[in-house]
Amino acid sequence: MLAMLLAMSALQAHAWKSYSDAGSLLADISRDRCVEDAPEGFNCLSKDIRYVRTDTGTMPVRLWSISQLDGEQMGVILDRYTLPREDFTRYAQDYGGQSKGNGYSWISKQVVLQGLAAEDGTILLPAEYIQVLPISDKVALVMALDYRYYFVTLDPETPHLFKLPFKHYEFYFIYGRTPETPFTLMFHDKTATDARGKTLVVMDNMGKEVHRITDVVNEGSGDYDFYYYGNGKIAFPVKGQDGAGLSVVVNALTLELEEVGPYFQTLPVGYALADEWDDNNFNNYQQAPVQRVATMTSGHGILSGEQIYLPIRKADGEVLNFDHPNILGIVPLFLPEIDGVRGWLVVYEAADGRWYRLVANAPDGDLLSGKRDELMPESIMELILGREGYPPFADIWLGTLDKDEYYGLFAGADKRDIPEPPLRLAVRYFKNPMNRSEGVTDWYDAGMDIGREELWAAYEARDNKATHPDNPLAMERPLILKTAREWWQNNKNYREYLETPWEVLQARYEAEARDSLKITADAILAMNSSDVPYGGDFYAAARTLGGKYLSAYWRRWHALPRSSDAYDICSRFGNNSYECNLVWPWAQGISDGQRAQEQKAAQAYAQDVARTKRRAPAYNKPVSEPRCYNQGDGTEKCFYD
After folding, report:
1. What are phi and psi of 428, to 5 degrees?
2. Is 217 helix (H, G, I), strand (E, B) or coil?
3. Domain-terminating residue out of 110, 139, 163
4. How far apart are CA 522 and CA 460, in angstroms?
5. Is residue 516 in a domain?
6. How much is the average pLDDT of 404-414?
7. Which of 103, 107, 272, 443 is most open to solvent, judged by the fewest CB atoms within 10 Å of its CB?
8. CB contact set of 324 (below 8 Å; sequence gap of 6+)
9. Long-range contacts: 436-440, Cβ < 8 Å, 24+?
10. Which DSSP state fits 69?
């Protein structure tokens, strides 16, 4: 897997559900994603319900979407917001993805407008906006027809737009999928001057600021500057001037500051390194909250200096310790050119030191391979606890050559051909995996594949692997160089193939085929030059290479499998060549004999035709009267011709 493998914005500016054009809305209608009693035509009340906050709890709402308005219908809506038709057309072209060639009437039919309805279908907000994101039963955040964001009051008759309270901002949403986590809006106030991090502002039911959280710093590689848990808690990692970290927790349901907890980070976790790797998975990942507990020491290759984490449970924000007394934590495995965590190193610690396991994919069974959450820390517990675990390592090194050394090897080479430095894995095994006290082995090369079966196979075949008593890089250097040269040569060959004219390639293929035939024919001659085979590769060599091969063939057989091959030989070597003079008389004799036979057959046919052309019998005119004969008994017998 290592051999083949060399900022998504966190909920930012996404709609609950948006449509690019009328066709996408029609697709949802045809897929039965709208309630049955929705108005006819291009109307959809979503079957999907979401929850918004009220003064006493939450309430479910539906998204209302309409399209295919004619110019007059759209004009009535534009007039309510005093937006000229030509301005709307320009905004839709500049910001809404509409073609510059489409005019007002066409765009009016293509744009999908959205509003809001209660669960029973009662209209809460008319469908007059490009996007609708409700934050309570009183106010929503909308993208209006000028493609700018506003707050709007939920009023089915006369909704009122009012400006957002920030000049420069990004916003984030919790999308209200459960009553415990209703729609919640947070802004990143970019005009605030923070000492260390961002200022995130939580908005209340009326679209006003309820909490301003400063110095928000996510030191992980994930994109979230907060994390929301299944029980409705929203946690913000905060660092003070002194560098001390903590988390501020807000209750999404009540909007109360609930507690101050330990500092955390987020990591982007992607699909596992599977045998059937899909390019589409390169940037498809989800965020995992983790808490730092230690740091990897040096001497572990690209894992040196990486942070060791304990995961935080998504359901309630509690730290997971894996229910194992010796697990210190897990280290994320990042590979070059691939976003997100693609595996983990589990770090164990006891009084006598540390040991490790690699986890690159979850087992089959309840945790199905290839799922998006396969590598989430909560999912890998089954492997960590050892039921179908990876082999334990007394020590581990994952890495490659220094970049200066590596790229110095390819000085003067075409940069397009130079591969990424190959990663290799080196490990120390326990002499007895079931009893660590029996000691450890030297460093062993474990290859370039970190699958569970492959690592166990490497352990079983360790006696055939490269070893070194104390320096894994020294052991891996020649193996890395060998792989790099192979990859470079393959890249170079493929690039040159793409750049080479077809006629040159064809000539090259023919030359290679001739060389291959020559090797085979020489081997046959060396075994027995007086009894070469009638057909097969030797005959192909005789026909295409001529010379001693054709001579040996002719001495043995004095004939060719096909007389037409003689014409091919004469054409290939020339009419005056030794090869042509060898086979042409035989072929000419075959041809003359065939012509003689054809001529003889033609003559026989002509004679047969002549014999069948006899004179026609004379015509006898029928007699109209009968001929009669006396029967000798006084009677006559008569006949007609």
Report:
1. -105, 130
2. coil
3. 163
4. 43
5. yes
6. 92
7. 103
8. 348, 384, 385
9. 436/352, 436/355, 436/394, 437/352, 440/394, 440/395
10. -
Give this prediction's pTM: 0.72
The answer to whether residues 44 and 64 touch, using CB atoms and an 8 Å cutoff, is yes
pLDDT digits (tens, 9 = 90+) for 64-121: 999 999 999 999 999 999 999 999 999 999 999 999 989 999 999 999 999 999 999 8
The count of domains in the chain is 4
Q: Taking 50 as the threshold, does the pLDDT of residue 2 lie above it? A: no
| DSSP-assigned beta bridge partners for residue 627 | 639
Instruction: Give CA–CA dist 470/474, Å, rounded.
Output: 9
- Considering Cα of 75, then 80, then 82, then 88, what sign does the dihedral take? negative
**E strands present in 404-539:** 424-430, 440-447, 467-468
pLDDT tens-digit map of 302-334 = 999 999 999 998 888 889 888 888 999 999 988
Give the model confidence (pLDDT) of 410-453 as tens digits.
Answer: 999 999 999 999 999 999 999 887 788 889 999 999 998 888 88
Full residue range of the structural domain in which residue 439 is found: 398-499
CA–CA distance from 503 to each of 110, 460, 491, 497, 572 (Å)? 52, 50, 22, 12, 19
Residues 459 and 578 in one domain: no
Task: Kindly state whether residue 248 falls inside one of the protein's structural domains.
Answer: yes
Long-range contacts of 15-18 (CB under 8 A, 24+ apart): 15/114, 15/131, 15/132, 15/133, 15/143, 16/50, 16/63, 16/131, 16/132, 16/133, 16/175, 16/176, 17/46, 17/48, 17/63, 17/65, 18/112, 18/114, 18/130, 18/131
Q: How many CB atoms lie within 10 A of CB 526?
A: 8
Q: How far apart are CA 401 and CA 403, in angstroms?
A: 6
In a domain, 290, yes or no: no
Answer yes or no: is 16 within a domain. Answer: no
